[in-house]
Structures are given as C-alpha cells and as structure tokens.
Amino acid sequence: QVQLVESGGGLVQAGGSLRLSCAASGRTVSAYTVGWFRQAPGKEREFVATNTWSSGSTYYADSVTGRFTISRDNTKNTVFLHMDNLKPEDTARYYCALSGRTTMLRSAPSYAYWGQGTQVTVSS
Q1: Which letter, b or e, does each residue of 59-92 get, where b requires 16 or more Cβ atoms within 10 Å of its Cβ?
Q2: pLDDT tens track of the chain, all 124 residues?
Q3: How crowded is residue 12: how many other Cβ atoms within 10 Å of its Cβ?
Q4: Residue 27 and residue 16: Cα distance in Å, rounded?
Q5: What is the 3-state secondary structure (H, E, C) of the chain?
Q6: Looking at beta carbons, which pairs linking 27-31 to residues 24 or more positions away fall under 8 Å?
Q7: Pairing of strands 118-123, 10-13
C-alpha cells in the first residue's frame, strides 16, 4: 500500500520561503516520476512541478518558474518542494503525487498515488 505524507506547510508572509516534504512508503520514489500540485478554494487542482524518474528532467508551471524547486532524496524516499519569494496567489493546499509515466506529466490523471496535502497560506 502506497502512502504519501506531506508536511512543511504553514502561514508565511509574502516574499518568504517554505520547504514542503513528501515522505513515501510502500513504493520507492526513485522508480517514479514525482509531482507537486496545488488547489485553492473554488479552483481546480493545478500542476506545480514534476521530476521524472527516467531522466531526472524537471518541469515547472510558468507561475512558479524561478521561485520553486523540486528535488528528491532517494535515500530517504522523500520528495521536496522548496518555495521562495512566495506570493499571496500561491495560497493553496499542496499535494505530492507519484506517476509511472514520463509524458503528460502536467495532468493530474497521470498520477496514480496522492498524498492528503499540506496547506500553504501566504499573507500580503
């Protein structure tokens, strides 16, 4: 059984930083593409970042490029999302996910396993 547990969310002022963690059990993250998505109240879940298992390629949503960094520590079976220069529009619940794919990675249905999410709130 796969379990993904996110942590590291919280309340931060605009311009601040947070690092989200996603600890996996039941699967080895090195064999999966890992992704981060977010969902704000009343909005659809949107792609944030992904890192493929095959080539290590990394992709970001335009809205976070240059501010967010996705990484993984395969020895700890953990995925991270480091977020700098946070803006109020980054406020959302953030989810990590695992996928066996190397294509269509900006699409949530491409991911088979999901965590419960961690809330990030950015005040202005």
Answers
A1: ebbeebeeebbbebeeeebbbbbebeebeeebbb
A2: 889 999 999 999 999 999 999 999 988 888 889 999 999 999 999 999 999 877 788 999 999 999 999 999 989 999 999 999 999 999 999 999 999 887 888 999 999 999 999 999 999 9
A3: 17
A4: 32
A5: CCEEEEECCEEEECCCCEEEEEEEECCCHHHCEEEEEEECCCCCCEEEEEECCCCCCEEECCCCCCCEEEEEECCCCEEEEEECCCCHHHCEEEEEEEECCCCCCCCHHHCCEECCCEEEEEEC
A6: 27/2, 27/98, 27/113, 28/74, 28/77, 29/53, 29/72, 29/74, 29/77, 29/78, 29/79, 29/98, 30/72, 30/74
A7: parallel
Give me 50's structure tokens. 């992904």
